[in-house]
Specification:
- By secondary structure, the chain is an alpha+beta fold.
- It has a single domain, classed as YehU-like (Arc Repressor Mutant, subunit A, Orthogonal Bundle), CATH 1.10.10.610.
- It is 43% helix and 24% strand.
- A four-stranded antiparallel sheet has the order 1-2-3-4.
- Helix 1 (21-35) crosses helix 2 (46-59).
- The longest helix has 15 residues, at 21-35.
- It is globular.
- It starts with a strand and ends with a helix.
- The relative contact order is 0.23.
């Protein structure tokens, strides 16, 4: 796990292999619903969207973070995590 902190936020990046499959599945579904994940002209099923997010997790473009203040876990785009830690 990697600690990331600033004056405004404290996060721990959690490797996906340290989560149970049901926990990871729940985070992926929450991320899809939160982000809206507009894919353009073609509509994708929830299962297809989950596969896209799993690929993004594998590539590192999306990461699992645990917020130490709120004691919650979520998925966040790597670019958004970088912005959050530099506030």
């Amino acid at each position: 796990m990697k600690n990331l902190s600033s004056d405004h936020a404290e996060f721990v990046v959690v490797p996906t292999n340290q989560l149970s499959e049901p926990a990871l599945e729940g985070l992926i579904e929450e991320f899809i619903l939160r982000e809206g994940t507009d894919y353009g002209i073609r509509e994708f099923s929830l299962e297809e969207k989950k596969q896209h997010i799993r690929k993004q997790l594998h590539s590192g473009w999306v990461q699992v973070v645990y917020d130490l203040k709120s004691e919650t876990a979520s998925l966040i785009k790597k670019e958004d995590l970088s912005k959050e830690t530099h506030l």
